[in-house]
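[User] At your convenience, examine this fold.
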Amino acid sequence: MTHRIARATALTAVAALALTACSSPSSAPEGASDGEVKGEVTLWMYPVIRDEAASKDFWEQTETDFEKAHPDVDLNIELQTFDKRDEQISAALAANSGPDIVLITPDQAATYLNVGGLQPVDEAIAEDRDVFFPATLQAATFEDELYGVPLFQNVFTTAYNKAVFDDAGIELPTTWDEIREAAPVLADEGVAVMDYLGTPEQTLNLSFYPFLWQAGGRVFSKDGTKVAFDSDEGVEALQFLVDLQEEGGLPKDAATQAVGIEGSPLAAGTVGIRPTTSPAELAQMRAALGEDAVVVGAPLEGEEQATYGNPGLLSLTSINKQENRAAAYEVLSFLTSKDFQTELNTAAGNFPTRTDVAIGGDEADRDAYEAALAVANPGEPNPSARQVMAVLAPYIQSALRGDLTPKEALDKAAAEAQDVLDRS
């Protein structure tokens, strides 16, 4: 699957300036006359390794290692913060001054491509393309060209408080039907079968969208010009959640429940399943409930099995000049190689985007997250993705509160969200 971006008829000032730096994608990159790659490449790297000092040391060593292997390329890795990242990158594109390569998300890739701020990178991984998880490449593919090389990915899967299921004599549920069957049994014991974080602070990629995908639905049409979450599959997904809420299968405050493990019903032992769990949250669950009480499983399954897994993309900006193109390709290839991904994932605790890179951790956890990687959905990149989330989230809350039926909620949300898409 590739994404198609609806182009604006009149480009913004950012786009106009950014396009002045774009060279033709069909032009071959220029190397040195003697066949050696030469040039200067600036990379903006955002926090991947949480410890600031460790991050600084890691990326300084990366510069050293790359330049040792490519003595005629000057690599400058500039560490940035997440604060105002969109504004920072947009300003750099407008000024035609800044990074040749930048770490961004698929949603950001869709946005910057829409204003002419990115260039294709297919050539950078031509020899290794087949070893990447297909979904990570799909997330960065627009109109059949690749606009970002996946550096790492975050992935989320199911975690269980096994103790509550053991006490009730229930096998760990892995499908919607099994969750439905377990819900009333656990509710009689004052336990919600599943967690749901309905607060608008939580991205829908980690709340409603996984259930939408498990039902076989989509957020947007394949060409990205229409909203599609109000389909029969969307109604089925929201009805599943509403039915659980009505019979005590979700926490009472699911419509507004905040992000975080500490102080949550899950940590109190009154919830059986967290459907989208990161490794960091898994550690927090075990600290609260005990090592033996928490088990990791594969993503839940409705009509389909799916979860959210978001790749970090190294994208080539319109700032990169033709004379530095080959050098930029070498940087992209080096940073997404098997050896480097192994080092980065060890240091950062993330997951690989390559199938030939081993996943670390406890064997049972490793197997579960490996299964999650195989069915991870990177989201549906669209320049309006975040605005659509902001429209949809309150309507999902209304359905969970019983103020609207699932169909009413999604129909109303779709009408507003379509206006957002049409305006953009």
Remarks:
- Residues 157-277+384-423 form a domain with the D-Maltodextrin-Binding Protein; domain 2 fold (CATH 3.40.190.10).
- The longest strand covers residues 307-317.
- The chain has a mean pLDDT of 90.
- The chain has two domains: 29-155+309-377, 157-277+384-423.
